């Protein structure tokens, strides 16, 4: 059963008036999505939850500045992205531990694969391998390219939303995203036997 | 230009637009002609398509949300609020909180304990808030519908919970260099007044709602407090209140309204979504 939450605008207004329950509801409403985005950037459960926690603290402390000109999710993505970039700056080595985390391993950090009955086992393992390689290649890109690709292709955000999150003109987002995609293709070029290019 | 065959570099610039079908018809023709004439470019384009398709496949990977994520977020916020309150202070107190916070990040451990009071069958629709004695390492707060105490100490101590009315100890929880979150629930028909204390912190006294005997109109101040909590549907924090004092009262029809005998100088306050019963003269 999915939770039904009040509108963000109402929750934010109530939070701005000092209603902690409203802010708590706002957290509950968005924490999963926030975590998934952070996890996709870091591939590390602990670091992802640290990033999300820090992001919500920043939001809580800046609630008074939120004027509702953009959607709350846009603000949330911006802050998570900033928290991630800040953390990367502080400690790059910490992230490298997680880069090669095996998909489907027992470490608790690796994402689970959704079982797809339409795929045969060999197709599934090929797909898993492909996804693992894409994830690893993503990590090798500059952080801003990684965040853009994740936002657009995985989190399904629009160019407008990404432009707002990164505070960039749409044209810049489009050209940078094209560069990021070309960069990712180049990184994956060596392992293209796994890709069906027919 | 639009109908000319474009060079490879230019064509690569249009990979994304072509993929998204946003290239204008003239450029599309030129792009497709370039692909048709340049096998290497065509191969690159196929790789590009396959790359994006695999990237989008990452959407299907299920990501498990860690247990306790919400608690971790709320705890960080509480800590941030607490730190802000402490910011003018310096000395050992601020020092150990900082080191504790760093320790928590390093080990990533939060010990969750449950204090079960009464038969714990029901839950109340409490509202959120933070109660903090200034400078205290012990907080009372609402986490969703749950009333909790949060204690943290960079040393060894115990969180002691007592039933104030019955005068007996209910539970002792060690707080040894770690953060302890204690959800509290009570479904005792008579309500409860509990105290929670920890070395180095002020005692917090809370009236937990009574579920019966709402018609009682006299007794001790502690009886009044649990009835008031029941009327409000939330715990009431008691500040400088003489619980043993005799009292008589009339509850109003609206939650939180009441009339006490004139000799009692109590006031109900709402702060950060929580209720406090405060002795006015002690303010």
Question: How does this model look, in words?
Answer:
The complex is a heterodimer of chains A (198) and B (283). Chain A is built from 9 helices and no strands. By secondary structure, chain A is mainly α. Chain A has 2 domains: 1-102, RNA polymerase sigma factor, region 2, helix turn helix motif (Rna Polymerase Sigma Factor, Chain: A, Orthogonal Bundle); 113-198, Winged helix-like DNA-binding domain superfamily/Winged helix DNA-binding domain (Arc Repressor Mutant, subunit A), CATH 1.10.10.10. In chain A, helix 2 packs antiparallel against helix 3, helix 2 (20-42) crosses helix 4 (72-90) and helix 4 crosses helix 8. Chain B is elongated, with a radius of gyration of 31 Å. Classes of the chains: A mainly alpha (198), B alpha+beta (283).
Query: Approximately how much beta-strand content do the residues of chain B carry?
Result: 25-35%
Counting helices, strands and paired strands, the structural category of chain B is: alpha+beta
Query: What percentage of amino acids of chain A are in beta strands?
Result: under 5%
Radius of gyration of chain B, taken over Cα atoms and rounded to an integer in Å: 31 Å
**Under the CATH scheme, which class of the largest domain in chain A?**
Mainly Alpha
Count every beta strand of chain B, where a strand is a DSSP E run of 2 or more residues.
Answer: 16
DSSP summary: helix tally of chain A: 9
| Widest sheet: strand ordering of chain B | 7-6-9-10-12-16-15
């Amino acid at each position: 059963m999915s939770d039904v939450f009040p509108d963000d605008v109402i929750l934010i207004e109530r939070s701005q008036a000092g209603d902690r329950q409203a802010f708590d509801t706002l957290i509950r409403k968005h924490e999963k999505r926030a975590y998934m985005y952070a996890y996709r950037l870091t591939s590390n459960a602990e670091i992802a939850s640290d990033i999300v926690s820090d992001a919500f603290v920043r939001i809580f402390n800046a609630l008074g500045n939120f004027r509702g000109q953009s959607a709350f999710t846009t603000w949330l993505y911006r802050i998570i992205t900033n928290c991630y970039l800040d953390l990367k700056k502080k400690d790059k080595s910490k992230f490298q531990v997680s880069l090669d985390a095996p998909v489907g391993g027992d470490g608790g950090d690796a994402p689970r694969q959704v079982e797809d009955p339409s795929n045969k086992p060999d197709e599934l393992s090929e797909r898993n391998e492909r996804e693992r390689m894409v994830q690893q290649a993503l990590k090798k890109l500059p952080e801003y390219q990684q965040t853009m690709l994740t936002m657009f292709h995985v989190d399904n955000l629009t160019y407008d939303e990404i432009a707002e999150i990164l505070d960039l003109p749409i044209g810049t987002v489009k050209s940078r995203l094209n560069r990021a995609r070309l960069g990712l293709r180049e990184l994956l070029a060596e392992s293209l036997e796994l890709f069906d290019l027919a | 230009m639009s109908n000319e065959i474009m060079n490879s570099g230019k064509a690569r610039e249009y990979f994304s637009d072509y993929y998204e079908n946003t290239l204008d018809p003239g450029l599309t023709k030129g792009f497709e002609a370039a692909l048709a004439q340049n096998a290497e470019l065509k191969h690159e384009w196929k790789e590009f398509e396959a790359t994006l398709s695999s990237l989008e496949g990452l959407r299907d990977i299920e990501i498990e949300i860690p247990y306790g994520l919400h608690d971790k977020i709320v705890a960080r916020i509480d800590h941030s609020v607490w730190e802000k309150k402490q910011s003018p202070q310096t000395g050992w107190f601020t020092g150990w909180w900082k080191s504790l916070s760093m320790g928590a990040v390093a080990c990533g451990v939060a010990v969750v304990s449950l204090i079960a009071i009464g038969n714990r069958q029901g839950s109340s629709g409490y509202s959120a808030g933070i109660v903090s004695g200034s400078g205290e390492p012990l907080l009372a707060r609402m986490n969703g519908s749950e009333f909790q105490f949060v204690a943290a100490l960079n040393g060894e101590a115990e969180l002691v919970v007592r039933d104030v009315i019955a005068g007996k100890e209910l539970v002792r929880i060690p707080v040894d260099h770690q953060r302890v979150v204690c959800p509290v629930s009570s479904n005792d028909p008579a309500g409860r007044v509990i105290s929670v204390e920890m070395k180095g912190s002020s005692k917090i006294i809370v009236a937990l709602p009574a579920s019966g005997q709402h018609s009682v109109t006299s007794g001790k101040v502690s009886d009044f407090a649990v009835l008031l909590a029941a009327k409000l549907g939330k715990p009431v924090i008691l500040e400088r209140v003489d619980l043993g004092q005799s009292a008589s009262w009339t509850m109003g029809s609206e939650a939180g309204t009441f009339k006490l005998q004139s000799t009692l100088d109590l006031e109900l306050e709402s702060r950060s979504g929580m209720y406090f019963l405060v002795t006015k003269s002690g303010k």
